[in-house]
UniProtKB/TrEMBL annotation:
[4Fe-4S] cluster binds at residues 141, 145, 148. The keyword Iron-sulfur applies. This is Lysine 2,3-aminomutase. The modification N6-(pyridoxal phosphate)lysine is found at residue 352.
Length: 386
């Protein structure tokens, strides 16, 4: 078992498990706490619940009364216990407690920032790239990220349940053998029961042209209790890759470490995606700690996303210049395994565009002048042209 990453300093006041249980008139019971269905039934949604746990700011109060009507609020007890009750800048609070700023529509904000709806070929299936599709599993997540790129769909009750949609999705896959890669993502597929997930994966795997199946999930971080050896066995049987989602090193708790161990020991390849968020993780030290912490859990950082311009998220976004500066402080300073690809998912539906600080300083004929990680210049000579 790995030690917790962030030991509370004297100034940090973490919400206690006892206080969370008391919100529901219960006493803390370690066995119930480890049960994922108990965690789901005891999610925090409302102002009066958070009020008992946190010294809320006026902006959070407005967020919990107004913004929560536009996009649902839910926080698992596991995740709530990582919040600092006294620090309004707590990186955990910022991700899941709405603020008044969510009501602000900034120039360029979009309801469907990645233009997914225009590439939706059947309900809940987005086909943008030549060989792969995105399958939206359902409309619920364990907790709701305030910067969700799919807040127009998730928790809105518009997406039909998967059994109703699945035949059309399978028909599409059978009619498009060029699709060899299916990414099943949010709403979160790991909230399905083991049997439902097994049936879904069997159905997708039954299409002969599908070679590669991935799940995108924040459940290992929001609800690590869900990762049982039975679930890991289902994922292993269908040879699924798993993309996790983490924002801050404080999320790498002993429970999360145990969940990642269960998955890695079962042979499930693990990647992680992170969204660059203002005041949460927009500095090189925090991200380096997160990415190297993930490597210790056998999770490979895959993408660092520039935050999509979702309506009402400008307070959580940072500039591309800042993202590039941070990338320049990661590459070379730590192993390439701990350096994800920084991407902008192009507004309007252009897909992911990778960005990195320029390393080609000059190029003439067969001579390339390149900048290394520490800023020094080197020349590379191409082979002579025949
Ligand atoms: C991100 C994404 C994928 C998967 O892209 P990879 O670069 O293979 O991870 C597929 N379809 C859509 C619509 C996506 O947004």
């Amino acid at each position: 078992m790995l030690e917790a990453q962030a030991f509370p300093s004297a100034t940090q006041q973490f919400v206690s498990r006892e206080a969370i249980c008391a919100v529901f008139g219960e006493t803390y019971d370690p066995v119930s706490w480890q049960d994922w269905r108990w965690q789901m039934r005891h999610r925090l949604h409302r102002l009066d619940q958070f009020e008992k746990l946190l010294s809320l700011t006026p902006a959070e109060r407005v967020g919990l009364t107004m913004a929560s009507q536009r996009f649902a609020v839910a926080v698992t007890p596991h995740f709530a216990a990582l919040m600092d009750s006294e620090d309004p800048n707590c990186p955990i609070r910022k991700q899941v407690i709405p603020r008044e700023e969510e009501l602000v529509a900034a120039p360029g904000d979009l309801v469907d920032p990645c233009g997914e709806d225009q590439h939706m070929v059947v309900e809940g299936l987005v086909h943008r790239y030549p060989d792969r599709v995105l399958l939206l599993a359902q409309d619920a997540c364990a907790a709701y990220c305030r910067y969700c790129t799919r807040s127009r769909l998730v928790a809105q009750g518009d997406l039909n349940a998967l059994p109703k949609r699945l035949e059309a999705i399978l028909d599409y896959l059978r009619a498009h053998p060029e699709v060899r890669d299916v990414l099943i993502s949010g709403g979160d597929p790991l909230l399905f029961s083991d049997d439902r997930l097994d049936a879904l994966l069997s159905a997708v795997r039954s299409v002969p042209s599908v070679e590669f199946v991935r799940l995108g999930s924040r459940v290992p971080g929001f609800l690590p209790q869900r990762i049982t050896s039975e679930l890991a066995a289902v994922l292993r049987r269908h040879r699924v890759w798993l993309s996790l989602h983490f924002s801050h090193p404080r999320e790498l708790t002993p429970e999360v470490a145990a969940a990642c161990d269960t998955l890695a020991d079962a042979g499930v390849p693990l990647g992680s995606q992170t969204v660059l968020l203002a005041g949460v993780n927009d500095d090189a030290n925090t991200l380096r700690e997160l990415f190297t912490g993930l490597l210790k859990l056998r999770v490979r950082p895959y993408y660092l996303y520039q935050c999509d311009p979702v309506l009402g998220t400008s307070h959580l976004r940072t500039s591309i210049a800042k993202g590039l500066e941070i990338m320049g402080q990661l590459r070379g300073f730590t192993t390439g395994y701990a350096v994800p690809t920084y991407v902008v998912d192009a507004p309007g539906g252009g897909g992911k565009i990778p960005l990195q600080p320029p390393s080609v300083v000059a190029h003439e004929g067969e001579t390339w002048v390149l900048r290394n990680w520490s800023g020094r210049l080197f020349t590379y000579q191409d082979p002579p042209q025949a």
